[in-house]
Amino acid sequence: MDKEYNDLIGDIIKGNDYSYEKDLTGKGKPLSKDYIQKDTFQHFQKIAKDAGYLPPWLKLQKEISLLVQAAQTEGDIKKINKQIKMHNRICPPPLQKGFVSLATLEAAKREW
């Protein structure tokens, strides 16, 4: 052996095409004031929003909104309520919505 110790991780990094010495965009630049003032979760939310990420329950909410606007029959209402049930399982409790019926369809169109 030519080394005193085995550096497995170092050997793996050196063996890859990607090296940490390459592609260091932003190296040496000071951190923005926003970075210092916000916590980690707020940074994640901003980055996710900028990247166009939507949580699954928001995607589902948009789908339900489209279904509610086009609903006309009892069959449509059943499909919508099935989607609402799934939405309520995955969204935060304060944002959960009630089921729709033919009698409450007009109010649901305004709510969704």
Overall geometry comes to: elongated
For the largest beta-sheet, the strand count, sense and barrel status come to:
none
Supply the helix-strand structural class: mainly alpha
Tell me the Rg in angstroms: 25 Å
In DSSP terms, counting alpha (H) and pi (I) runs of 4 or more, how many helices? 6
**Percent helix:** 55-70%
N/C terminus separation? 69 Å
Order of helical and strand elements = HHHHHH
Count the beta strands.
0
Low-confidence stretches: none
What does this molecule look like?
- With 112 residues, this protein is mainly alpha-helical.
- The chain has a domain at 56-111.
- The chain contains 6 helices and no strands.
- It is elongated, with a radius of gyration of 25 Å.
- The model has no long low-confidence stretch (mean pLDDT 84).
What is the element layout, followed by pairings?
Elements: H1 8-15, H2 33-37, H3 40-50, H4 56-70, H5 74-90, H6 105-111
Main attributes?
mainly alpha, 6 helices
Short characterization:
With 112 residues, the protein is an all-alpha fold. It has helices at residues 8-15, 33-37, 40-50, 56-70, 74-90, 105-111.
